[in-house]
Amino acid sequence: MTALADVNFAIYPGQIVALIGSSGAGKSTLLQLLNGTLQPTAGEVWAMGQLWQARSARRIQRQIGTIYQQLHLVPSLRVIHNVNAGHLGRWPFWKAAASLMWPLGVETAQAALAQVGIPEKLYARTDRLSGGQQQRVAIARVLVQDPAIMLADEPIASLDPERSHDIMRLLSRLVRERGKTLVVSLHGVEYAQRYCDRIIGLKQGQVQFDLPAQEVTPEQLHHLYQLDNPPPS
């Protein structure tokens, strides 16, 4: 089964790009291709001006940070340890292991948590935080990594509408303040239109449209999601 076919586009520095489409449209697969956890069976993937290949993978991956839908936090650890995981691409093994006993990089972790609005949670156990706070820890981990490109796979899927807007406002602000690039997969079209510069619509593994957010029409969304009722005139 082909997950993606005839996908061809470029994303430029500083853009906030939303990937939208029904479940199974290929959004997560596309993000995995972009961060190198999947390799294409045909075609090429370029990142940071370089072709994804074995000899350049580690160098490129340091410049790409991913916020996963499942967050990939260690619940039993304190927040600082989960945030410090953003250093793992640079820290040697001995330093990472030592930091679990005596936290290192405290000022950097504290600054990242301050940027996401929860500096007081530095030494809290991660499993005692709310879902929205855990999402902020995952974002702080990427800020510590300091990548040029941020990828986010359904970062608001498990949050209520108010918290969803909080996280999308936070992401868009951090990306613009730091001059980063963000590619985010979203189920909620309203969030894509409000917070993103550009929207790529995926359906059955193919790009249906690639447009500035304000140019996406109700008719295009109707076709993308195969709504039962026609869009309002």
Automatic annotation (TrEMBL):
Residues in the signal sequence: none
Gene Ontology CC, one term: membrane
CDD domains (UniProt xref): ABC_PhnC_transporter (cd03256)
InterPro entries named in the record: AAA+_ATPase, ABC_transporter-like_ATP-bd, ABC_transporter-like_CS, ABC_transpr_PhnC, MetN_ABC_transporter-like, P-loop_NTPase
Short name of any one Pfam family annotated for the protein: ABC_tran
Keywords: ATP-binding, Cell membrane, Membrane, Nucleotide-binding, Phosphonate transport, Translocase, Transport
A molecular function GO annotation: ATP hydrolysis activity
SUPFAM superfamilies in alphabetical order: P-loop containing nucleoside triphosphate hydrolases
Location of the ABC transporter domain: 1-229
Descriptive protein name: Phosphonate ABC transporter, ATP-binding protein PhnC
Organism of provenance: Acaryochloris marina (strain MBIC 11017)
Lineage: Bacteria, Bacillati, Cyanobacteriota, Cyanophyceae, Acaryochloridales
Designated gene of the protein: phnC
